[in-house]
Design goal:
The protein is mainly α. It has 3 helices and 2 strands. Helices cover 85% and strands 2% of the residues. A two-stranded antiparallel ribbon has the order 1-2.
């Protein structure tokens, strides 16, 4: 197996194996599967789960970096506005108006940065929760399919042994009947 399959690809491979498996004659639709291959797929699914969770965490980190960049941009805008206000101020009226405008810009930028950070944090939590739920669902599904396959295999073997016992018993009964008929034949001279 290629260790770089995604969990969805691994589940698809498992489903294809079930779809393509040979049906055993007189088994009521039961199929035969390669236990080692199924076990390898389940192990690969378990190995791939942490990488999906890592990807979700990387998304969270990326969103945090985006929020930090937004905060830096807002700070840069505030500094530029304050610098520009200082350059333009020539008397106290202009200075006071510029200072008020800079304060408003700073407040608006801080509010926007806080909203962006909050939205990124919320989306990151949702992404991680969804990835963890999906991973748990995939493991549960794979375990259920594995359990069903083991039960089906066990039932098939039990049914085959029962049929074999019945066939042997029928053959012995037939042999006994023939023997009895042979004993009843008159001796040849």
């Amino acid at each position: 197996m290629d260790a770089r399959h995604t969990i969805d690809e691994l589940i698809n491979i498992l489903s294809e194996m079930v779809d393509e498996a040979w049906s055993m004659p007189l088994s009521g639709g039961k199929i035969m599967l390669d236990r080692d291959r199924i076990t390898d797929l389940l192990n690969e699914i378990k190995t791939a789960l942490p990488s999906d969770i890592q990807q979700a965490r990387a998304i969270v980190e990326s969103r945090n970096e985006l929020a930090a960049a937004a905060r830096r941009d807002a700070d840069a805008i505030i500094r530029a506005a304050e610098d520009k206000a200082r350059v333009l101020v020539s008397d106290s009226t202009i200075y006071n108006e510029a200072k008020r405008a800079a304060t408003e810009i700073a407040t608006a930028a801080a509010t926007k940065a806080k909203e962006t950070l909050s939205a990124a944090d919320q989306q990151a939590r949702q992404t991680v929760a969804a990835a963890e739920a999906h991973a748990a669902e995939l493991v549960k599904s794979a375990e259920a399919k594995s359990r069903d396959l083991r039960i089906a295999t066990s039932q098939f073997v039990s049914d085959a042994l029962t049929r074999s016992e019945e066939s042997v018993a029928n053959a012995l009964n037939e042999l006994h009947r023939v023997k009895q008929q042979f004993k009843q034949l008159p001796p040849t001279k």
